[in-house]
Design brief:
The structure is a homotetramer.
Chain A: E1 10-14, H1 19-32, E2 35-42, H2 50-58, E3 66-70, H3 72-85, H4 102-116, E4 120-122, H5 131-142, E5 147-149, H6 151-154, H7 160-169, E6 185-188, E7 193-196, E8 226-233, E9 236-240, E10 243-244, H8 247-260, E11 265-271, E12 277-283, H9 285-301, H10 304-323, H11 329-341, E13 347-354, E14 357-364, H12 372-375, H13 386-410
Parallel strand pairs in A: 1-2, 1-4, 2-3, 4-5
Antiparallel strand pairs in A: 6-7, 7-12, 8-9, 8-13, 9-10, 11-12, 13-14
Chain lengths: ~400, ~400, ~400, ~400
Amino acid sequence: MSQPPKKISRVVLAYSGGLDTSIILKWLQTTYGCEVVTFTADLGQGEELEPARQKALLLGIKPENIYIEDLRDEFVRDYVFPMFRANAQYEGLYLLGTSIARPLIAKKQIEIARAVGADAVCHGATGKGNDQVRFELSYYALEPDIQVIAPWREWNLTSRTALLEFAEQNQIPIAKDKRGEAPFSVDANLLHVSSEGKVLEDPAEEVPDYVFSRTVSPEQAPDRATIIEVGFERGDAVSIDGEALGPAALLTRLNELGRVNGIGRLDLVENRFVGMKSRGMYETPGGTILYFAHRGIEQLTLDRGAAHLKDELMPRYAELIYNGFWFSPERELLQGLIDRSQEFVTGTVRVKLYKGSASVVGRASPYSLYDQDLVTFEEGAVAYDHRDAAGFIKLNALRLRTLAKRNRRGA
Amino acid sequence: MSQPPKKISRVVLAYSGGLDTSIILKWLQTTYGCEVVTFTADLGQGEELEPARQKALLLGIKPENIYIEDLRDEFVRDYVFPMFRANAQYEGLYLLGTSIARPLIAKKQIEIARAVGADAVCHGATGKGNDQVRFELSYYALEPDIQVIAPWREWNLTSRTALLEFAEQNQIPIAKDKRGEAPFSVDANLLHVSSEGKVLEDPAEEVPDYVFSRTVSPEQAPDRATIIEVGFERGDAVSIDGEALGPAALLTRLNELGRVNGIGRLDLVENRFVGMKSRGMYETPGGTILYFAHRGIEQLTLDRGAAHLKDELMPRYAELIYNGFWFSPERELLQGLIDRSQEFVTGTVRVKLYKGSASVVGRASPYSLYDQDLVTFEEGAVAYDHRDAAGFIKLNALRLRTLAKRNRRGA
Amino acid sequence: MSQPPKKISRVVLAYSGGLDTSIILKWLQTTYGCEVVTFTADLGQGEELEPARQKALLLGIKPENIYIEDLRDEFVRDYVFPMFRANAQYEGLYLLGTSIARPLIAKKQIEIARAVGADAVCHGATGKGNDQVRFELSYYALEPDIQVIAPWREWNLTSRTALLEFAEQNQIPIAKDKRGEAPFSVDANLLHVSSEGKVLEDPAEEVPDYVFSRTVSPEQAPDRATIIEVGFERGDAVSIDGEALGPAALLTRLNELGRVNGIGRLDLVENRFVGMKSRGMYETPGGTILYFAHRGIEQLTLDRGAAHLKDELMPRYAELIYNGFWFSPERELLQGLIDRSQEFVTGTVRVKLYKGSASVVGRASPYSLYDQDLVTFEEGAVAYDHRDAAGFIKLNALRLRTLAKRNRRGA
Amino acid sequence: MSQPPKKISRVVLAYSGGLDTSIILKWLQTTYGCEVVTFTADLGQGEELEPARQKALLLGIKPENIYIEDLRDEFVRDYVFPMFRANAQYEGLYLLGTSIARPLIAKKQIEIARAVGADAVCHGATGKGNDQVRFELSYYALEPDIQVIAPWREWNLTSRTALLEFAEQNQIPIAKDKRGEAPFSVDANLLHVSSEGKVLEDPAEEVPDYVFSRTVSPEQAPDRATIIEVGFERGDAVSIDGEALGPAALLTRLNELGRVNGIGRLDLVENRFVGMKSRGMYETPGGTILYFAHRGIEQLTLDRGAAHLKDELMPRYAELIYNGFWFSPERELLQGLIDRSQEFVTGTVRVKLYKGSASVVGRASPYSLYDQDLVTFEEGAVAYDHRDAAGFIKLNALRLRTLAKRNRRGA
């Protein structure tokens, strides 16, 4: 380790209950000799939280130092939905399922650190990934003098063997299936599951079937399409087929609909903020449906000026989230703009789900800007005079005509 | 008509051979008393061109005034492919199939006008749509003093009945199925078919099956996926499954693959340049496959800086094409940037086609920027030191920490 | 006139009291046979308003149909200041003095139209300029079904002689100095004076001295510099040299300071929205000082992320105002973002005024983000470790190194 | 030092001949035991280069290992001029004088490293500044496996005393005036002089007079204005008052003109890439004149579409240069776009220089896009019909009207 260990008295660890964060837990105790406070969150990753409590107790954490929280509604309401208002896609395709969860976990760790008087926080993200950046930028933005421990960058447990030895030496139980190395690594929350590494590392090779955990393959999906109606209010989905649902319940429902219809798989080679390309497989069943549905309702209710401004700003907004700048002034300023644009993004969208595709097939809104009279081929009583188009074109063409004449002169 | 007819001696008409442009042909002769030169292009719309010649002759056009040209290769090579290098999507979804054909037709009309000494050009686009703008901006940009005739904005044949009466009075043959009004209007070329109007005008109503002409429904597509390999050179597709193909042949092949697999349908409400929203159904089978395949090969071969710059500029580039500014300095400047970015966008992409979806499942390139050594979880011999990430994060966080302290002070 | 006159019963005219709008007043009465309501605003153009009332009465306007309003504070507070929060400059140089006044006048006309039950509004802007667009887009955005009368596009008084004849026929008094044609045309308000046309039309020729009305020449300015301190709160100037001043009073004071020091002249060739280039001379004495002072306080108090986002959005924001889209969703969304960024833009800036230049020479803020400890050459106790820079650079370089290796391979 | 010294056999040092880089030279020899190759460039910093050769010899560098080069023309032609084509200003004001010199020095070091078979390069930039980033990103982009030595981040000579002791121990001559600490630090090249640190560190305090070295104060400048004519070809200045001048000679002439007229001082608080704010005083006499002159000729010759695109991209382009990404694909792509836009940016601009101001007072071009006929108030024979404006406005207003009606409904 390049620097002497910082002096730490109490640290809040983002703790999953799994082998890796259990090793970190012990390593914190032995390396820093500090009190460890564990934080385990339910973000919809699909795992029980109680085993994490038991394991923390087993590893010597005091009951009052074990924090477990169900964050699913907060996650969807305050992170996923705001992001979907922007139609955010990183590099044109990725719905940012991993990126969007990090700031919330970091925020909770900081809140707990304040509550328990901890002077440090710790996460289990590796030294080559984006997640370390996302965690730590969030920590620092919220609590500028917090100390940050990133074991994967600090320790010398740099091989699987070393990790397992450390676990054994410290009486950390190792599940049988964790002895061997996992064929790929996984991150999951209510928005998505991501898989990367090992068997996925060759971007030329198709992703093996056993990697998928949240969607059936399109081939296995039903032979009949499912049509659903998603209701929106001010840019957020609020109902499915007329049934009002809270944020997490709604996304859970969409996930189930997406799962059975094989929707939301994405095989991506992406550019990490830390500088290299990586390949991953994302499954975002509900999010994919939500993305198209939201575009559908915006088509009807958003003015062109607002819509195009949003589209132009989106890549930068998505990049900010991907790079870990959720808690930055520029993300917050863009969010304010995006949120304000959604005032009338209210209505319903019908989406057809079929063997891997989510397609908008109809949309309606009390605040529709679509005007059948304006668009109809017959000239009606409306305030559209065909002859106006002539002047419109003439003035738009004026500079091009001047230019054409000049360029000839110049040739 | 608000203005006295311009004095026209010879006009080049974009002539399809259909009823509407035949009426225009006659109307030009009777209104302007001028010589009409017809131009009929094969852009892959899927219609025979010889009937157009016969019809023109029948309507009194001299043989030497009938121009018929197969533009399919030029269309794909010089218009479609450059646009796909940009991953252009208007309003996040539309692959610009109609927009991209207009500048080419306009350019050819201008070339013919110069060759035959015509002082005017004429198109059959209506007064409420984007196409009139696209045609006319192109005309003016290429030939600033050309006169433009836009019959739909000028004449008083403002009802179907009036049109048919005019046709009958002028001995224009009317096919039986053209007596009644078409239930929707269609534009087609090698890139796509668009349908809009009438039965499509209510954006809440699903598009009826009989509207589709270029794709089978996903439900009717084969139960087994088709996997193809698309080869790219410098950003353009050049082969399918190892077989080198010219631009038009390649897009034709992709169209067929897309057609049978039900790929490329898009139900869209979009914002027209002339100010209103309209609803259309686009079928872009080959283009949809091409879009995803191109993104796939760029993922591997394009640097992040170039890729993100392209993504940020794309909405504006797409808007320029949609609005008819193909022949504008800003489109050309952006095109130069995009083209230059494609120098190493060479390699192969495997795409899975299945019941409406085109999914990249693998990509390879001799110019790959993906480096397995950099991304692997194990720290190897490569030039990536985990500890570098600490400094990277620290300096990225510095301003956020300063800000957090200031904001507290300010609170 | 190309179209039959619309049926108008009552029209609200933007009336200056000058010859041209008096002619318009009469022309409205005679052409439309409608009741004319005049609106005369004090936007700081430097003219008495009472003569306008007298003239309106003389021309037969009923007293209750004469509206005169002092809008100076509203103009500066709700239009000028919000725009300066964005550091808006059109085409890199122009502080938008004319553009920003139009939406306010239009808004007041619409309010009066509603109050008096008028069905139309009328402005005196010519058919080749931007102002017609700015007025009319504002009218339509605020009152979509209002009728708009633009006499300069409608009447046939297309020469100076025709105008004077019409004036004489209608007993409109003509000041002696208005007989001949003015050597240039002028627009003025509290933010600026613009001059264009005639003697200014050759962009190669220097602007003659007699054109300037709001600034002395730098050569005539005092030989000693004046240093002032401008106080800001949340992005708006609120005091000069410690004296709190309301918006209009503050800008008036800055104008006087700028005037005597020869500050704020701009000789510009600009691109009009209607498609041609034009040349103008702008005098914006107070605004120029304000621009630099605002940049000065932002330098100290705005985070880099927010500052760069603002700078990137500024050209589009400025273009929107120039083009007349003040009352558009996209301008309003951008404004919301800009306003929110100004929360801590509070403090004082010292500006040196000297013979044409306004230079920031010092700035201070209770919310400064400048940290002397961070920037000092000596490494101190602060949270900046020189070695962090190594990692920062390494990861920023990673993609460039990968790229360099690939490009060699490709060469 | 955190890491063991790399094994270096030969290093190319950017060597000024001054005390600091002489200390670095010795430190390299003693720390790495490697052969040092010195590179001293004339970038117009205004110092003799021969003393640097003598000093290098004195410090034991072999004659064949001493590289001295006059880069002034290359600097202006290939770095300064391309940047000025973009009208680049970082954070709205800074003409990037320091930033633009770094990539050229780095490039030459790499070329020499290749020529002499060196495995490392070394610069004298400190660990808190931007220059280290600019040097190193350039090194890595050009030679991805080069080793980089940054003494200021590595050694423990962290105080002035320690440095002087090291110098004495190593027989490095110390000029008398270097014993005490400089009251500020300076960087100079043909484009500018920057001063920062110490006496400049309080951003509220005015910069003392003795800091300025390249400009007289405006107060001391002549009482009569100087008017010059700058000739441009394809975006680059090529002559002054009709005299053709090479790049460096031209900038030298402009610097002298700027110097005597007190032009180009900028007191700035800026945001460094490494995360903190710093305050500096820049003197860019010739560059300031060039900036305004270039804007002047573009006003006349650049189409609006190209001009606005350039203006929108400029902040990002300037940021790339400031941050050190000169040799990055995104800078190069933007440069290609910018360069292409300059095809017709040819003509002459007259600039008035007076006591601190550079003001364009006239411009002319054989490729002017300014058309007096179009802009004149009288409607002439030109292709501008006032009535076209009505249609132009109507269609631009259409969406705003639709929106206004909807929003009422929504209220």
